[in-house]
Amino acid sequence: MPTITISIDEEIRKVIGKRAKKNMLTIKEQIEEIIRQSAIRTKSGQAILGTKADDNLVEIFSRHKKGKKIRRKKRKA
Description:
48% of the residues lie in helices and 0% in strands. The chain is mainly α.
């Protein structure tokens, strides 16, 4: 398995630690899960846009489309 080294703030480590404890994982396993889920969504093209991630690390590794949003016309009832 490839090894990746990242530097994160103590505040972010605490947030990941709380999330890992809630999911009964170690911090390392939680980070691996966050990256794995992000890679799966990106690979399959199923990235959910406009949602607020519950973890700053997810936002860092997530990709969002940029540009002008297309507005749909409302139907008259």
